[in-house]
Design a protein that fits this description.
CATH superfamily of the largest domain: D-amino Acid Aminotransferase, subunit A, domain 2
Structural class: alpha+beta
CATH topology of the largest domain: D-amino Acid Aminotransferase, Chain A, domain 2
Order of helices and strands: EEHEEHHEEEHEEEHEHEEEHE
Number of strands: 15
Oligomer: single chain
Shape: globular
Radius of gyration: 19 Å
CATH class of the largest domain: Alpha Beta
CATH architecture of the largest domain: Alpha-Beta Barrel
Bound molecules: pyridoxal-5'-phosphate
Largest sheet: 8 strands, mixed
Helix content: 25-40%
């Protein structure tokens, strides 16, 4: 018997190994899958999700942008997430909700059936390294973000991760941990799987929505910083802003704030004072110690 977590697939609970698609499925051979990823945390003996509603909203937006449908409401997906988490007695983890056409698509490019939905629970491990906020290095990628006129970059579509793969590979091959991209207009966008903030003269700055994924972590940092009285701006950033920043950090659902200690050949304080403050604010929120944001934590089950 498998010791891997069970998987929720189209309203059934199955073994991890059974969650498979044919090689010629539309999802794989046409690259049409979509997904959402968000964390579960243990807070005061309860397993909770962080901003699951925001992730459901983003998934609905992805489906709208790509003109795809699923057979479940957001509430049904949320119930399914709670069910599979409890079945697996999951604690700190990443939940991955995949939407895909699992059927073979040899002739038809356009399918109109509802997507299959699979929900995976991926427990934290030393390899996954959730919450591991040791400082990292970053470079400016030689690859740009795709033009939003060619593909909806705000959709969390698997196909949008092919550019992300190239960005990360380019960075790793040059000895950096991650690459930051410019958008099609030449302004700072984001990383392969992360958003970016800079600090300049005490002000937090992050690129506006439009040419980047609507990161839930980016949005949470915006809201928490405003509530905490930190000056913060959504504003167009040029690549020179990266080179002249006092601090840079990246953020995503798995590690809320990741200080960047070196950008290209420039050393940076990591964490710098503002980054440290943001990181502490987010940790308090995730520990359930900030009443103002308790609504972001949604209970799945008690341990
Ligand atoms: C391209 C991209 N930008 C930003 C993020 C961060 O988004 P979130 O905070 O919702 O994890 C991700 C996360 O997967 C991403 O893939």
């Amino acid at each position: 018997m498998s010791d891997k977590p069970k998987v929720w697939l189209n309203n059934e609970i199955i073994d991890w190994e059974q969650a498979q698609v044919p090689v010629l499925s539309h999802g794989l051979s046409r690259g049409s899958g979509i997904f959402e990823a968000f964390g579960t945390h243990v807070v005061h003996g309860d397993v909770v999700t962080f901003r699951m509603d925001a992730h459901m909203k983003r998934m609905a937006q992805t489906l709208k942008l790509l003109e795809m449908e699923i057979a479940y409401s957001s509430d049904e997906i949320k119930q399914a997430v709670a069910r599979i988490c409890e079945v697996n007695r999951i604690e700190r983890s990443i939940i991955k909700v995949m939407g895909y056409w699992g059927e073979e698509a040899i002739i038809n490019l356009v399918l109109r059936s509802p997507l299959d939905i699979a929900i995976f629970t991926i427990p934290d491990s030393p390899e996954l390294g959730l919450d591991n906020d040791v400082p990292i290095t970053a470079c400016l990628s030689r690859w740009n973000k795709p033009d939003p006129g060619a593909v909806p970059v705000m959709a969390k579509a698997c196909a949008n991760y092919l550019p992300g793969y190239l960005v990360r590979k380019d960075a790793n091959d040059r000895g950096y941990d991650l690459g930051l991209t410019l958008d099609a207009a030449g302004n700072v966008a984001e990383g392969s799987i992360e958003s970016v903030y800079i600090v300049k003269d005490g002000v937090l700055k992050t690129p506006p929505l439009g040419n980047i994924l609507a990161s839930v972590t980016r949005d949470s940092i915006l809201a928490a910083s405003k509530a905490g009285g930190l000056p913060v701006e959504e504003t167009t950033l040029e690549k020179e802003d990266l080179f002249t920043a006092d601090e840079i950090f990246s953020c995503h659902t798995g590690i809320k704030v990741i200080p960047i200690a070196k950008f290209e050949d420039k050393e940076l304080p990591a964490p710098g004072p503002v980054t440290r403050e943001v990181s502490m604010m987010m940790k308090k929120i995730l520990a359930g110690e900030d009443e103002r944001f308790s609504g972001w934590l949604e209970k799945l089950y008690s341990l």
